Amino acid sequence: MEARIEQGVHNYSAAEDYVWPTDPEVRKKLEWFQDQKLALMMHWGPYAQLGVVESWALSDADADWSRTGIDWGVNAQEFKQQYFGLNKTFNPVRFQPEQWAELAAEAGIRYLVFTTKHHDGFCMWDSAYSDYKITAEDCPYHTNRYADICGHLFEAFRKKGIGIAAYFSKADWHNEHYWSSNYQRGDYMWRGPAYVPEEHPEEWEKFVQFTHNQIKELASQYGKLDVMWFDAGWVCEEAGQDIRLGEVIDQVRTWQPGMLCADRTVGGPYENYITPEQCVPEEPLGVPWESCITLGTSFSFAYEDTYKSPREVVCLLVDIVAKGGNLAINVGPQPDGRLPRGAVTTLRGLGEWLAVYGEAIYGTRVCAPYKAGNLAFTRKGDKAVYVLELFAHETEKVPAVVTIPYLGAVHKITLLDTGEELPFTADKAGITVNVPGEQQGGAPIARVYKLETE
Questions:
Q1: For residue 123, what is the DSSP state?
Q2: Torsion of CA 340, 345, 346, 347, to 10 degrees
Q3: What's the rounded Cα separation, in Å, for the pair 1 and 410?
Q4: What is the residue-averaged pLDDT of the chain?
Q5: Is 113 within 8 Å of 328 (Cβ atoms)?
Q6: What is the pLDDT of residue 68?
Q7: CA distance 219 to 63
Q8: pLDDT by residue (tens digit) across 91-110?
């Protein structure tokens, strides 16, 4: 399991090991999931104040890469105390959930993946099972009307018709039944528990029950959840850390029928979709999947971060969708509760493009040959094939004649944005399309052709 996670980045499970769920409600929800295509992922917590990587600097075993830019004048134990004390100054008074939801809708986002709790154990909801939370009295934000951040955020996004995926770390580095200095390793911590669960079954069972209680709390008190997205893949039976996740998910599904479970990198019947991180598979996987990729340089907020342009994100989204996946584009909110201006600008640009060309993205499925040069293919049933001609740079030449390597029967081709019908010829090499009109200005992000096939 350790090999699957390097410098905090997860690898992903092999498609050939995927286990299709047998529950018809879950299968139905998977079809919904594959229609959505675009998620907004958000990593947010007290760590945003420092502009450092979320949680990982707490792990002494990961200090070599995760504590860069952190003052080494203090020792590791002092640093960890300072990190855990960030809750006492976290006060995002400029958080406005309705504005976030409005922007997400404008950007064409179809579901939200929000960190209810990262590995550091800080809860962004009013958990009854932890005092390390946004609503605790030692957190200055607890008096704010939006203090139960998950509750207000989920509701604001639902009102915009956006689905909800609750990210939840199975590891909890603040919980005394997971990390404790009372064992042989003392204060030196790693990703896993401070003890061997098999040697201390009573202690481990306390952690299992704590985890089950929090999962059930989120699934029973925070409205409809479309997905529960479980991070910390090292917490699994294979690694000797069995939290019996299936047991609690089966229970939750009695009142949240069909809820998807993404037990990432673990495999088996509770990894309902595969989650490549910061990468895109080379080929279609043939199973449901979602790439989580940062809009900036990191998942958490970073001061003076740089963000991908709308052109870059559209090209990324099209690459993923042509291979049958979804894109979860991650934005780390600022410590004051606002979204970074650069991220907002890109999201709005993405939304402008999708408002015109979304028909070729949402609700589509893979279509051979998937990708060919700067052409990408999607389809809707037997009625339409969409060909997205991408221009990675504004300075690229835009050709007047395009050869599309598609061999299926086509009776009409139009430009998706204008509806203009285009003349074409077909032969053994595919379809040759003539695109009239001189290109004004730089190259567009894409030209999209709709091929009517029925």
A1: B
A2: 80
A3: 48
A4: 95
A5: yes
A6: 83
A7: 34
A8: 999 999 999 999 999 999 99
CA 153 to mean position of chain CA atoms: 16
So what's the pLDDT on residue 6? 58
Residue type, 439: Q
Distance CA 426, CA 28 (A): 38
Nearest to 327 by CA among 370, 390, 276: 276
Taking a C-beta distance cutoff of 8 angstroms, is the pair 293, 9 a contact? Answer: no
For the record, the structure tokens of 310 come out as 């709308």
Any idea what the Cα angle at residue 117 is, between residues 178 and 251, rounded to 5°?
80
Q: How confident is the model at residue 69 (pLDDT cuts 50, 70, 90)?
A: confident
Tokens matching residue 19 = 């286990």
Residue 245 CB-density burial (10 A; 0-12 exposed, 13-18 middle, 19+ buried): buried
Which value, in Å, is the radius of gyration of the alpha carbons in the chain? 23
For strands 384-390 and 446-452, give the pairing.
antiparallel
Question: Counting Cβ atoms within 10 Å, is residue 92 exposed (0-12), middle (13-18) or buried (19+)?
Answer: buried
Other CB atoms within 10 A of residue 161 CB: 10
User: Using an 8 Å Cβ cutoff, are 45 and 122 in contact?
Assistant: yes
Q: Report how far residue 281's alpha carbon sits from residue 320's, in angstroms, rounded to the nearest whole number.
A: 8
d(CA 288, CA 33): 8
- How far the first Cα of the chain sits from its last, in Å, is 48
Per DSSP, the residues of 246-287 read HHHHHHHTTTSTT-EEEETTT-BTTB-SB--BS---SS--SS
Residue environment code for 114-130, b if the CB has 16+ CB neighbours within 10 A, otherwise e? bbbbbbbbbbbbbbeeb
pTM of the model: 0.96
Residues 6+ apart with CB under 8 A from 37: 110, 317, 321, 326, 327, 361, 362, 363, 364
Q: For residue 21, what are the contacts with CB-CB under 8 A and spacing of at least 6?
A: 27, 30, 269, 272
Strands 424-427 and 5-6, sheet pairing = unpaired
**How does residue 72 score in pLDDT terms, banded at 50, 70 and 90?**
low
Give the tokens for residue 28.
């139905």
Give the per-residue pLDDT at 438.
Answer: 63
> Rounded CA gap, 369 and 314, in Å?
19
The reported pLDDT for the residue numbered 3 is 47
Pairing mode, strands 401-404 and 384-390: unpaired
- Looking at residue 439, the DSSP 8-state letter turns out to be P
Q: 10 Å Cβ neighbour count for 165?
A: 23
Q: How far is CA 45 from each of CA 7, 133, 227, 308, 418, rounded to the nearest angstrom?
A: 19, 10, 20, 23, 44
